[in-house]
Amino acid sequence: FLLPIGALFGVVLSACLWLLSRLYVQKAADFRYALQSPQVFMQYQPIVDLRSGRCIGAEALMRWQRGKRMVPPDHFIAAAEKAGFIERVTERVVQLVARDAAVFLHEHPDFHISINLSAADLSSGRTVSMLANMLERTGLPPQSFWVEATERGFLESTDVMQVIDDIRTVGLRVAIDDFGTGYSSLAFLSSFRLDVLKIDKRFVDAIGVAGIGTGDKVVTMVIDLARTLGLEVVAEGVETEAQAHFLRERGVQYAQGWLFGRPQSVDALRKLVAAWLPSQAPLATST
Ligand code: C2E
Ligand code: MG
Ligand code: MG
Ligand code: MG
Questions:
Q1: How far apart are CA 205 and CA 16, in angstroms?
Q2: 127: burial class by Cβ within 10 Å (0-12, 13-18, 19+)?
Q3: How far does residue 264's CA lie from ligand 1's centre (Å)?
Q4: Where are the transmembrane segments (predicted)?
Q5: What ipTM was predicted for this assembly?
Q6: CB of 132 closer than 6 A to ligand 1?
Q7: Ligand 1 and 43: CB distance under 6 A
Q8: What is the reported pTM?
Q9: Residue among 61, 118, 207, 258 to mutate when testing ligand 1 (max atoms within 8 A of CB)
Q10: Could you tell me if 200 and 178 are in contact, meaning their C-beta atoms sit under 8 angstroms apart?
Q11: What beta strand segments (E) does 117-269 contain?
Q12: What is the per-residue pLDDT across 170-215, written as a single tens digit (0 to 9) for each?
């Protein structure tokens, strides 16, 4: 009597799993197709200097508008990674960023755009040539770009050391993203030549929160660690004035978060940056 129920359960379960995997595969396929369409575009989140409040750069974040729905990047990026076409995604990101920012970056030579790389990008020599080609095509200086990759990206890649070195030799800066969410050892981390450390939002969230008594101490530790390694620091996910104040007091240079600006279109970003042009400063009275 139990046997048929068990069998039935098994059949239903595998049907559900099959359906889920079909949906997943379908989603990846749809995304791959959408990549070359206007459904997929970039937004840019301001990165500001905490002392001057000036916007000094922006992080490029991919968006997929699937019909009426915005698909979360974590989903479609993971789908592309699993389906094995993340390099195509990165290629498209670089293409869209180059197109969006060409004029704009020529106007602002100090400004930079930060591009997210996945683990597979860090294992591939193609990434370096892709970035170098983009610089050649647009005539933009390498200082106009940062790349960011998560700790996981560093851990899961082979030849990552070489790829990072090559990217830095071309002249781009390299940031470790979502720092503190992975499990890499200090020894592992310090073996890479990096430029920037991005403190993950979860640490910023813990600033001054009662109950998470060690929050402030942990953030301070991460800031000190970055300083010891000679890295610049960007705090991510800053939402309150109190968090910004805390970070500023501890000498954190840069921050991004809703307090300063949401991810936005390139046109909106241009306006924001233009508001900080030297020509906007009060004119000195000449005699
Ligand atoms: P990430 O690289 O750590 O990007 C920062 C994420 O935090 C973004 O989420 C951003 O919208 C969000 N964020 C920034 N400030 C705040 C804040 O103050 N409050 C809150 N609640 N959130 C904030 P988003 O755009 O959903 O992207 C999620 C992740 O997807 C990114 O994390 C990145 O790992 C990945 N991703 C996004 N675009 C790309 C891309 O073009 N290529 C690759 N490889 N990954 C991407
Ligand atoms: Mg990032
Ligand atoms: Mg991040
Ligand atoms: Mg993240």
A1: 37
A2: buried
A3: 12
A4: 1-20
A5: 0.98
A6: no
A7: no
A8: 0.90
A9: 61
A10: yes
A11: 145-150, 173-179, 196-199, 232-235, 254-255
A12: 999 999 998 877 777 777 778 889 999 999 999 999 998 866 556 8
